[in-house]
Amino acid sequence: MNQELEQSFVKQLKDNQNIIHKICRLYTSGEDAHKDLFQEITIQLWKAFPKFRGDSKFTTWAYRVALNTAITLYRKSTRSVATTEFDNTKHFIKQEDYNYEEEEQLKLMYKAVYQLNDIEKALIFMYLEDKDYQEISETLGISEVNARVKMNRIKGKLKKILNP
């Protein structure tokens, strides 16, 4: 791979690494698993980057690769490895930003989201990232109408989980 392409990849990855970290947090429960998934997603992005044509935004393409990688690894890991309960994971919040009530709400929300299936997790994640339905549908490979319908169902499912 030439140096120009490598520099372009590194810049795009730096600019969009928060996307990958958020996906890692959604599909892992623990610092080591998070680091492993981040590394694997980065490797998959690197391998696929020469084929990135720019037909969509880099972020849309990166979401798709990252989510596919996370879902594939998540499915493999659930077959053979026990997972850690969400309450046992570490939460990293800057001291000055700490809000106990908000932290508890986030714990409850993540606990509820962990109960969703892989596609539902991906959809709610992108929705919470303020992605429009067109970008969500492109990333997940479903129609825009289907994304909206699924989102409404997920909202109802989360309400039932959070308010039984």
Automatic annotation (TrEMBL):
UniProt keyword Transcription present: yes
Listed InterPro entries: RNA_pol_sigma-70-like, RNA_pol_sigma-70_dom, RNA_pol_sigma70_r2, RNA_pol_sigma70_r4_t2, RNA_pol_sigma_r2, RNA_pol_sigma_r3/r4-like, WH-like_DNA-bd_sf
Single GO biological process annotation from the record: DNA-templated transcription initiation
Domain of life: Bacteria
Domain RNA polymerase sigma-70 region: 15-79
Protein keywords: Sigma factor, Transcription, Transcription regulation
Keyword Transcription recorded: yes
Domain RNA polymerase sigma factor 70 region 4 type positions: 110-158
A Pfam family reported for this protein in Swiss-Prot or TrEMBL: Sigma70_r2
Molecular function per GO: DNA binding; sigma factor activity
Family annotation (SUPFAM superfamilies): Sigma2 domain of RNA polymerase sigma factors (SSF88946), Sigma3 and sigma4 domains of RNA polymerase sigma factors (SSF88659)
NCBIfam families: sigma70-ECF
Annotated family: Belongs to the sigma-70 factor family. ECF subfamily.
Name of the molecule in the record: RNA polymerase sigma factor
Lineage of origin: Bacteria, Pseudomonadati, Bacteroidota, Flavobacteriia, Flavobacteriales
